[in-house]
Amino acid sequence: MKLNTNYPKSFSHIGITVPNIKEAVKFYSEVMGWYIIMEPSTVKKERDTAIGQMCIDVFGEDWTEFEIAHLSTSDGIGIELFSFPHGIKGAPEFNPFNTGLFHFCIQDPKIENLVEKIVAAGGKQRMPIREYYPNDKPYKMCYVEDPFGIVFEVYTHSYELTYSSGAYAK
Known about the structure:
By secondary structure, the protein is α+β, with helices and mostly antiparallel strands.
């Protein structure tokens, strides 16, 4: 018997570009409850530090500075916020049919309360809160937008619980 040495990799963080770093930190810390682990700071293009060189490697040469902040969810997933002074400040086009990152999902058992807080803070509710297994299990979901137009999803229960019951099976 061959031993399977492949194992599931853990999720470390997601990077989100926002139009205003301070407003985004306020929204994500106050509405989502995420911990601020590094307040907003400015990164300038330079080659004298490891961070400076890494940013040049990632972003190329066509920039001079940007703002960055780091937050964390309750389960230790990092949220890396970026704000570039010359980036497009409008909401991205919502197009889930094209290749690329479509959304991220967070979990809160009090989905109705969280959706209300998101809307009250300037975000949007994109659909009604829906049940995966009406009258059977209490698993719910809803797509929302933050105040900057970034689409994400809210679940009431873990990914494993939601789909292990066969959400698409009859």
